[in-house]
Amino acid sequence: MKKLQKLLVLVLIVGFMVSITGCKDDDGGGKKEESSGVDFTNHLSGYSIKVQNNTSKKLVAFKNSPNASYLIGGIPGSGANEHGLPKPSGLFTATGDFVLFLVAEEDYIANKSNLSVLANKPFTRIYAYYNANSENYIVYPISEFLGGAKKITLNNNTSFNVELRTDGVHGAVLGYAQEGAFNTTFNVDSGNYMVFPVFRKYNSARGEIITVYPKYQGGPGDGKAKFTAFSLTGSKDEEIIDAVDYIGQDVVLKTGSAYLMIINNHSSTGLEFVRGGQPIVTSTGGRYINRTDSMTFQIDMPKKPGSNDEYLNDLPLSGFQIGTAAYKVSLDSHTFQSDKIYRVVVTGTTPYDVVLGAFEEVGTMTFN
Fold first, then answer.
1. Could you tell me if 316 and 200 lie in one domain?
2. How far is CA 334 from CA 12, 127, 314, 319, 320, in A?
3. Does residue 34 lie within any of the structural domains?
4. Could you tell me if residue 32 is inside a domain?
5. I need a surface site. Which of 12, 50, 104, 324 has the fewest CB within 10 A?
6. What is the pLDDT of residues 169-208, one digit of tens each?
7. Residues 6+ apart with CB under 8 A from 317
8. DSSP summary character for residue 27
9. How far apart are CA 173 and CA 175, in angstroms?
10. pLDDT score at 103
11. Main-chain dihedrals φ then ψ at residue 105, nearest 5 degrees
12. Which of 203, 229, 254 lies at the terminal end of a domain, its last residue?
């Protein structure tokens, strides 16, 4: 009898352990969530894009809209850094821009049978780009302000795509809405906000994502970025932003950046563009400039000292280099002008031989 009792206790213990194992959530270790069935693996290779989750929420990612056919994968919470999302078969077949549509895992589970109800209630939307021809080096950050009980509703009644950024035109992205999209709601934390709407679109002729911001022209605020400030505290639960209010006769759309086109005519090696030892990545995720190829790099203008809403129109060259892992050459003294496009041709015969041609201004970047 005692042996039978011991056997029953052992069976119960084993069963309990199995049930715990079967219900365990996956935080990116290579298994699917038991509750959602979503792949939360951090794909170190063969990924579609990379994200950094600065919130505590576990998220589910879709391409363009919440639809089972467009499911990409899951993102663990609490600072998942450079998390590589999977590349489902048939979903990423060509180079191009897309909307990274994110929902909280619990919302995905609750609405799994009818995902369309989440179409205007994303955790956030991020304007992203997939490059089928090279590794995608951009890491898309998810703002730490997202996921709270307050709301920001964006009505994009313009012909542009619009992003809401915090504390500056180059600041963290709260969310994104495509042209003509109304009532896009983002849940945010309680607090004070300074939001800068910026407009973005992919320029297929240049192979670049162009970003512009509204800047006052004449009158009060001349030369400064247009923004809105508000407080979501106490009884105020929602702020409504109409994108159309940020374009008009009193503003001009400026890129707030200079652009450098590097043409690689080196006979033996690919090249990198770096500043202060850190590689610079293009707006579409490119990093290495292959032989006989070229890339255009965006160089953002910093804020004027002591200002939150005014940006420099020029930037002296400092710390910029072009070359290989073995040997790099510093760019000659020059000043970048906002909105201008510059070009430099690089030649050489070995990885230790990098020769920069003349630094030329070749045009102005426009939003058209």
1. no
2. 75, 32, 10, 12, 11
3. no
4. no
5. 12
6. 998 899 999 999 999 999 999 999 999 999 998 887 778 8
7. 331, 332, 333, 334, 335, 336
8. S
9. 6
10. 96
11. -60, -40
12. 254
Picking from 307, 328, 306, 303, the residue whose alpha carbon sits closest to that of residue 315 is: 303
**For residue 355, is it within any domain?**
yes
342: domain range?
A: 257-364
Give the separation between CA 198 and CA 201, rounded to whole angstroms. Answer: 10
**Of 288, 279, 269, whose CA–CA distance to 320 is shortest?**
279
Backbone dihedral region of 183: left (phi > 0), alpha (psi from -120 to 50 degrees) or beta? left
Strands 314-316, 335-337: pairing is: antiparallel
Give the domain-ending residue among 187, 221, 254. Answer: 254
Q: State which amino acid sits at residue 346.
A: V
Q: Are residues 348 and 305 in the same domain?
A: yes
- With b meaning 16 or more CB within 10 Å and e meaning fewer, what string describes 273-309? bbeeeeebbbbbbbbbbeeeeebbbbbbbebeeeeeb
| pLDDT band with cut points at 50, 70 and 90 for residue 332 | confident
The total number of structural domains in the chain stands at 2
Same domain, 237 and 266: no
Can you spell out the DSSP letters for 58-114? -EEEEESSS-GGGEEEEE-SS---SEEPP--TTTS-S-EEEEEEEEEHHHHHHTTT-
